Amino acid sequence: MGDFFWALGTGDFGTTPLNASGDAAFAFLLTPFGTPPGFNAGVYRYSHQTGAVTPVVVPFVTPAPGGGTFQGASFIPALNNGGELVFAGMVRSEVGTGAGLGLGVFKEDTV
Hints:
This protein is an all-beta fold. The protein has one domain. Helix content is about 0%, strand content about 35%. It is built from no helices and eight strands. The strands form two sheets. It has a four-stranded antiparallel beta sheet, with no helix packed on it. Strand 3 and strand 4 form a beta hairpin. The protein is globular, with a radius of gyration of 13 Å.
């Protein structure tokens, strides 16, 4: 897993959804940067109960449905009050960006 890039306003991918319980989810660019935008970006979840941030998508490690691994993620994951997390994940694909990558909408398995 790459290191977080902590420069203000550079690593985060859009807004950070916060549900009524105080849980949050966010997509974050990791170093080294890549193209297209979102390549090597992870998705993370914050729990208000534990105070912990846990990875949902670790690029090149987290298995993607249908085979292979996630290559990154795109902007603004969605988190509802029931804790369900939906995000745009980047996977290897014959259609999409032209770089052999495409985006799909994915829902995290129940935590």
